[in-house]
Fold this protein.
Amino acid sequence: MRSAYAIVLAGLGAAAIASAAVAASRDTHTMNVQLPDGSTARVKYVGDVAPKVTVVPARVTPFGLFDRSMFDIQRQIDAMMQEVAAVTQMPATLAGAPELNVAAFGNAPEGSSITVVSESNGSKTCVRTTEVTGQGTGKPPKVVTKVSGDCGPEPAKPTA
């Protein structure tokens, strides 16, 4: 008899717990709170009175400001490097623009130089390239001038 009484009592307890869970699930509400960083916090509560939610910004240390600054600088560097990569993938000759040349430093003979002057007035562009190559001790340098684009008369030649 005692075991039957215990089983009935356990059954009633289980039913009470189940009905309380069902009642609580009907009374559960969800509140979405927009956070300062643009994300959303979802707050679940039980009852008819919504909780008071306060968002307190974290204390910013000088190191935190430094980290944020470094992050911004790195982001800008990454953006610039992507632009450089995009430009290097462009065709060498754009519509109406003179060819792009890549300059390299290295094994130029002593006394050599290259001067590039580009002039543009918005509708016309002129590029003058002067290359001076050293021929060795006691010999005059070799001077080669190239002109491309919409250029007027050639300026006076440079003297050695």
Remarks:
- Helices lie at 2-26, 62-88.
- The chain has a mean pLDDT of 75.
- The chain has three domains: 2-46, 58-89, 113-149.
- The chain is about 30% helix and 25% strand.
